[in-house]
Amino acid sequence: MSELPKTYTSADLAEGGKVFRELDPPARLAIFGDPVAHSASPPMQNAALKAQGRDLQYVRIHVTPQALPEALAALPEAGFLGTNLTIPHKQAALELVDDLSREARLMGAINTVTVRDGKLHGYNTDGPGFAAAIQEEFGMALGSLRVLILGGAGGAGRAITVQCALAGCPKIIVANRNSAKGETLAAEIKGQLERNVTAISMDPSEVRTAVAASDLIVNATPLGMKAQDTSPLPEGSESALSKDHLVYDTVYSGGNTALLRQAQEAGAKSASGLSMLLHQGALAYKIWFGEPAPLETMRKALRS
Ligand code: NAP
């Protein structure tokens, strides 16, 4: 079995981050999560830092929900430039930073924090990272597509749905298991961005009609993370898939998911969530350093 990479804990942020300052190179960027041990961000970000000759490293820090306020507050004194946030911190952190970008406020989640003048600034690069991934994978601007988002009112789903609204997609359909959550999100987007979003349930016939009325189908549910998972398309609705569809699965477990297999069988163009992971990371890097990230270096690190 391969050895898991080193994971620090929030207790290591004590004493002005002494533990991190004493590393060679010092750790000044991190990802906070619970769990966090399997995050793919450290190898990707460390490859970028090394390629650009920056004398610092990016580490995993296991932070429980209870420890999040203190861990974020400790970042300036510990000499950190910022951090990424993953499960389950993206929503809770909204209340814990000094200010928020417009996207993060609309998306209701933060995945990137930067420290400037001792203050914490929150951003969301999942939505813009998704838009960049669609452009790269399919050669199409997100704003030109009619989009169906499965699990569109979940964490990643909400960022994607808001991004679609910001991009001006001509049609946005959110299919959510808990359909009331989808309706609430649609009402919020209508109120704040004056864009129409249709909320539907996961009923097979409703989803089938929505598939037929969309160009791009996105999976933002966790279905596909485990090898034995079924497709997020409820049984029967997959028959509406055709060769004209684009299918994007945000799952990035590496293998072919049931949804990607259905897309391939229908002759549709499809892609996994690895490109979204890459672009959200590259956009976070740009926020921290004010310069474009070395994308190809990061892509190579992710693939290996
Ligand atoms: P989350 O906040 O827990 O949201 C999960 C969503 O999926 C909710 O809408 C939930 O519906 C729905 N859902 C969960 N189980 C379901 C099931 N069995 N059948 C139908 N719907 C189900 O999770 P998240 O953090 O957004 O993560 C969702 C996915 O996005 C994961 O696969 C994750 O890997 C992926 N992701 C990818 C990237 C990337 O960079 N590629 C970044 C972030 C996340 P309810 O609202 O009804 O519970």
What are the salient characteristics of this protein?
304 residues, alpha/beta, six-stranded parallel beta sheet, 11 helices, 38% helix, 19% strand
Task: Please describe what this structure looks like.
There is one protein chain. The protein is an alpha/beta fold and 304 residues long. 38% of the residues lie in helices and 19% in strands. Strand 8, helix 6 and strand 9 form a beta-alpha-beta unit. The chain starts with 6 loop residues before the first strand and ends with a helix. 47% of the residues are buried. NADP nicotinamide-adenine-dinucleotide phosphate binds next to helix 6 and helix 10.
Brief overview:
The chain is of the alpha/beta class and 304 residues long. It is built from 11 helices and 13 strands. 38% of the residues lie in helices and 19% in strands.
Please write out the topology.
Layout: E1 7-9, H1 14-21, E2 27-33, H2 41-51, E3 57-62, H3 68-74, E4 82-85, E5 99-100, H4 102-107, E6 112-116, E7 119-123, H5 126-138, E8 146-150, H6 155-167, E9 171-175, H7 179-193, E10 198-200, H8 204-212, E11 216-219, E12 246-249, H9 258-266, E13 269-272, H10 274-289, H11 295-303
Parallel strand pairs: 1-3, 2-3, 2-4, 5-7, 8-9, 8-11, 9-10, 11-12, 12-13
Antiparallel strand pairs: 4-6, 6-7
Helix pairs in contact: 2-11, 5-6, 5-10, 10-11
The structure holds NADP nicotinamide-adenine-dinucleotide phosphate (NAP).
